[in-house]
Every structure is written in structure tokens, then in C-alpha cells.
Specification:
The structure holds 2 protein chains of 2 kinds. Chain A is α+β, with helices and mostly antiparallel strands. Helices cover about 50% and strands about 20% of the residues of chain A. Chain A has one domain: Sufe protein. Chain: A (Alpha-Beta Complex), CATH 3.90.1010. In chain A, strand 2 and strand 3 form a beta hairpin. In chain A, helix 1 packs across helix 2, helix 2 crosses helix 5 and helix 4 packs across helix 5. By secondary structure, chain B is α/β, with parallel strands linked by helices. In chain B, helix 5 links the parallel strand 3 and strand 4. The two termini of chain B are about 45 Å apart. In chain B, about 40% of the residues lie in helices and about 15% in strands. The chains are: A alpha+beta, B alpha/beta. Chains A and B meet through strand 1, strand 2, strand 3, helix 2 and helix 5 of A and helix 10, helix 12 and helix 14 of B.
Chain lengths: ~140, ~400
């Protein structure tokens, strides 16, 4: 299979590889996929609670080159976006940007799912924190 | 060292220049039809095909008359199974094979099932070998054929052919083997192995593509096969069609070289294979060999690098030609059914790489491949959330994954 130059670039120089402190209240973690399916993506966002802007994003992916590229691209796009803007990223945007062939569309779907899971995790943590903050007052 | 390096000799092999040389006169100069009985053009062609028949027979311990030329192993396997099922239909309608066969066997069996033949697919053990007790238990009075491959094309595991041959003989059942990966690589002897029918192909043993043979026993018992193509009645009526003279000459030459050089070549290839294996296993943790190391072709290594997906690994070693059992590299998007049959789990199937070292690989190439694979596996593990979790002590089998 021939890979697009952009997929090759992300594979050879993956952006934002790593992990953030998943116990932090400002870090949302999304883990999607399954080892037996051949793809697992972990995507993390660190959000500024004052502005709602994603200040940092990291990923680790077990999967094919297109899965690695999709999640690497997602972290690039997430940085600087607000949480709500992040939720607007669609898998089709990733497909277009990376010129993914039809058999690799599931990689982009997985990346979108990972974004939603990470933001969801962050929101859940924030939701859980609010009553706590109220109780302290 | 020239890149890319070809190390996928279970898929096909580069033609030996000596084979090529033997074939060349038979394209344009000696062009006769081997079936032309009344002029020298035909005689010359026939002489060449008969020489090849002898060379093939000598390699496998058969006689010339027991060799039927075909277009390759897929045809040989189809002819063997369908031909026996049809010829022996009155005696019975049951065939025994096993789950890790090549598709040319499995899909032929599926077709036969639609036509009323009953097929038993024996499972394999974790080492890739069938259980002989299960084989014995599967034989019924209706069983007409046992078809078990000699050596597997993915994991290189060599089945207990002699023992199967004894069981088949004892029960009066015919025994066929798809031996494409074994012929010319390890000693194969149809007499000692108790084989009645055997498939082989030229391009796996440094010969040309598009030519193969089926060994069909002529004595004790005399095996009969119903032809699957109608025509001029070539090959003792079993396979019609004008003989592919240059291809057959190439197959013969390839067999002749294999017979003369096998002992030395096996030594060299198993040394290289073991060197590759040892390097990978010393430098990397959580590396698993798929299938028995003891009962294995000397040039095969099938290995899983846990927490690394096969296609992404192939992408990183793109100047090395190897194969992966990963779903992403298959047309069906399913991981290798052979590796799944070993019970190792789909995750290890996705992480597998098959190396097939061949006659033209050098030690320097093996060193290069080992270093490159080690490098890329390390890089991809840095990227792998699974490796991170495993290092943190998370039991990955207990995680509830969101399968998609």
C-alpha cells in the first residue's frame, strides 16, 4: 500500500508523543480501540480551566501508520482550540488532510472517538469538581 | 549491500541464475510441442521435459512416471483433492485436513463440501502441529483422503508427515500433502514419508512462476485421479494442456540444484535464521516465536513483537521485504488465521512478522535486518500505549476495551 506524504511525515516524525498526568483535574484522557482489533489510541488534553483552551495534547498509539498519523495530527489540531472547538473536529477532516484511502477511514474515526473521549473525561472531571468546590465554600 | 533486501522467501524466491540459464534455449530456439511425436522439434521438447521429470522425481524419491506437470501448487492442490473426491466417490466421501492449510486447500475443501463431501478440519496445537490421536479418531470407514501440508507457509512448522503416512497406510486412506514450502528445503521422500499424492511448485525453490507438479503414486497403491480439465489427455490423462516446456525445464533444474546443495544450504540458512532470532530476542523484550522451533523449516522465523502493530512495523522497515500477519496487511482485514489457530490471541497475530531467509541473502543482510527491526520496534514501543501500560503493570487482558 502506498502512503501519502503526510502520513509518512507523521509516522516518521510523530508530533506530541507522550503522556500527561492522568490524575490531574485539568487533564482529560481518552483511550479507544482494542488490541485484538489492531488499534489502540490514547489521547490526552490539558485544559486551562480559566479559558477552556487546550494548552497541551499528547498521544500514544498502537496501530498501523495511518492510525499513528491520525492521532498525531489530532494532537496538532487540538492545541490552542477550546474544548468546544475540539469537539467540532470530524473524522472526515482527518481523512482529507491525510488523504486516507477507504480501508483506513476507521483510523480517522478512531481519532475522532479519542478526541471525544478525552474531552468527555475532562468535562466529567470538571463536573465532579464543581459541587466539591461549592461544598468547600 | 543493495537495498531493498528481499527476505520473504515463503511468498516466492528469486530465480536462480542457473535455472534461468537452463530455461533460455526453450523459449525461442527449442520451441517444439512435447506432444508432437513425429518430428525432431517435438522430440527435443519431450527430451527436455522428461529430463526435468527425472530431476523432480530424484529430489522427492519418486519415479518419473509419477510426476504430473501443472501450472503450480494451487492447481496441484485442486487437482489432488477434487480428483480424488471424484474418483473415489463410491468408496467414501470424507476428507480430513487441518485448519492452518493454505487457502488452495481450504477453499477447495469448502467447494467440495458444497458438493456433498464431508470435511474434517483438525485443529492444531499451540506449537502448530496436529495431534495424531485426533487424526486417528477422525478417520471413519468413509474417509478417502488425508491432506496435511508438509510445512506451513506462515510459521514454517513441519508436520509429522511420516507418522501421518503410517496412520493413513494402516487405515487404507490416501495421503496427500501440499509440500510447496518443504520440497527443496528439507529432505522429502515420498516413499519414506508414505505419501500417495504431493503438490509442489517451482517458484518457491528458485524456479520460475507458473509451473508446478503433482506427484501421484503408481504402486502400492496405484492412485487414480479424475482430470479436472478436459482436453488432449496429456500427463497420463490427469492433466490436459500443452506442456510449458521452458517452465518445466526450470522446475527440473531448480530441483536438481536443490538436491545437490540442500545439505550445505540448510546449514547456512539455519545459521542465518538463528542469528536473526538470537539478535532479536537478546535485544528486545516480549518477543514471541510463533510455532514450534524444533519442528520447523530452517529458513523460517515467525515472530511477534508484543505491543507493536505489524503494518506500522513494516512501514518502518520499508527497505526490507517481509510479511506480517496483521489484519492491516491482508485483503480481508482479518489477522492471520494461522496464528489465530495457535491460540496466541489476535493481538499477537497483529504484531507478527514472517521472515523467510533465502539462498541469496547474506549474513550482512541478516545483520542489517536485525538492527533495523530492533530500532523500529523500540521506536514504536515508545509510541505504544500498550507497552506503557504493560510496563506500569497493567494486565491488558483485564482492561475493558472499546472494540470497534
Amino acid at each position: 500500500m502506498a502512503y501519502s506524504d503526510k502520513v509518512l511525515d507523521h509516522y516518521n516524525n510523530p508530533r506530541n508523543v507522550g503522556s500527561l498526568d492522568k490524575s490531574s483535574a485539568y487533564v482529560g484522557t481518552g483511550m479507544v480501540g482494542a488490541p485484538e482489533c489492531g488499534d489502540v489510541m490514547k489521547l490526552q488534553v490539558k485544559v486551562n480551566p480559566e479559558t477552556g483552551v487546550i494548552e497541551d495534547a499528547k498521544f500514544k498509539t498502537f496501530g498501523c501508520g495511518s492510525a499513528i498519523a491520525s492521532s498525531s495530527l489530532a494532537t496538532e489540531w487540538l492545541k490552542g482550540k477550546t474544548v468546544d472547538q475540539a469537539l467540532e473536529i470530524k473524522n472526515t477532516d482527518i481523512v482529507n488532510e491525510l488523504s486516507l484511502p477507504p480501508v483506513k477511514i476507521h483510523c480517522s474515526v478512531l481519532a475522532e472517538d479519542a478526541i471525544k473521549a478525552a474531552i468527555g473525561d475532562y468535562k466529567k472531571k470538571q463536573g465532579a469538581r464543581v459541587p466539591e468546590a461549592v461544598a468547600v465554600q | 549491500m543493495k537495498l531493498p533486501i528481499y527476505m520473504d522467501s515463503h511468498a516466492t524466491t528469486r530465480m536462480d541464475p542457473r535455472v534461468f540459464e537452463a530455461m533460455t534455449p526453450y523459449f525461442a530456439d527449442i520451441f517444439g510441442n512435447a506432444a508432437s511425436r513425429n518430428h525432431s522439434f517435438g522430440w527435443e521438447a519431450e527430451e527436455a521435459t522428461e529430463k526435468a521429470r527425472k530431476q523432480i522425481a530424484d529430489l522427492i524419491g519418486a519415479t518419473s512416471k509419477e510426476i504430473v506437470f501443472t501450472s503450480g501448487a494451487t492447481e496441484s492442490n485442486n487437482l489432488a483433492l477434487k480428483g480424488v473426491a471424484e474418483m473415489y466417490a463410491e468408496r467414501g466421501n470424507h476428507i480430513i485436513t487441518q485448519v492452518t492449510e493454505h487457502k488452495a486447500i481450504l477453499d477447495t475443501c469448502k467447494r467440495l463440501e458444497k458438493e456433498g463431501v464431508r470435511v474434517t478440519y483438525l485443529p492444531v496445537q499451540q506449537n502448530g502441529l496436529i495431534d495424531l490421536d485426533q487424526l486417528r479418531a477422525a478417520i471413519t470407514p468413509k474417509t478417502i483422503l488425508i491432506s496435511i501440508m508438509y510445512a506451513n507457509n506462515e510459521i514454517g512448522v513441519v508436520q509429522p508427515i511420516k507418522e501421518i503416512g503410517k496412520i493413513a497406510k494402516e487405515k487404507g486412506v490416501l495421503f496427500h500433502s501440499d509440500a510447496v514450502q518443504a520440497v527443496g528445503k528439507i529432505p522429502v521422500n515420498v516413499a519414506a514419508d508414505g505419501l500417495d499424492i504431493m503438490s509442489l511448485t517451482a517458484h518457491k525453490l528458485y524456479g520460475p512462476k507458473g509451473v508446478g507438479a503433482l506427484y501421484v503414486r503408481r504402486r502400492n497403491p496405484r492412485v487414480q485421479i479424475t482430470a479436472q480439465m478436459d482436453g488432449g489427455g496429456h500427463e497420463r490423462g490427469m492433466r490436459s494442456g500443452t506442456l510449458n516446456v521452458p517452465g518445466i525445464v526450470g522446475l527440473g533444474a531448480a530441483c536438481d540444484i536443490a538436491r545437490r546443495e540442500m545439505v550445505e544450504e540448510t546449514k547456512r540458512l539455519s545459521f542465518l535464521r538463528d542469528k536473526l532470532k538470537d539478535k532479536l530476542m537478546t535485544e528486545l523484550d516480549e518477543v514471541y516465536i510463533n510455532g514450534s522451533m524444533e519442528h520447523r523449516l530452517p529458513h523460517n522465523l515467525n515472530i511477534s513483537f508484543a505491543y507493536v502493530e505489524g503494518e506500522s512495523l513494516l512501514m518502518g522497515i520499508n527497505d526490507i521485504a517481509v510479511s506480517s500477519g496483521s489484519a492491516c496487511t491482508s485483503a480481508t482485514l482479518e489477522p492471520s488465521y494461522v496464528l489465530k489457530a495457535l491460540g496466541a490471541g489476535d493481538d499477537l497475530a497483529h504484531s507478527s512478522i514472517r521472515f523467510g531467509i533465502g539462498r541469496f541473502n547474506t549474513e550482512a543482510e541478516v545483520d542489517y535486518v536485525a538492527d533495523k527491526v530492533i530500532d523500529v520496534v523500540r521506536k514504536l514501543r515508545e509510541l505504544s500505549p500498550l507497552y506503557e501500560m504493560a510496563k506500569e503493570g497493567v494486565d491488558l487482558t483485564k482492561v475493558s476495551w472499546t472494540a470497534h
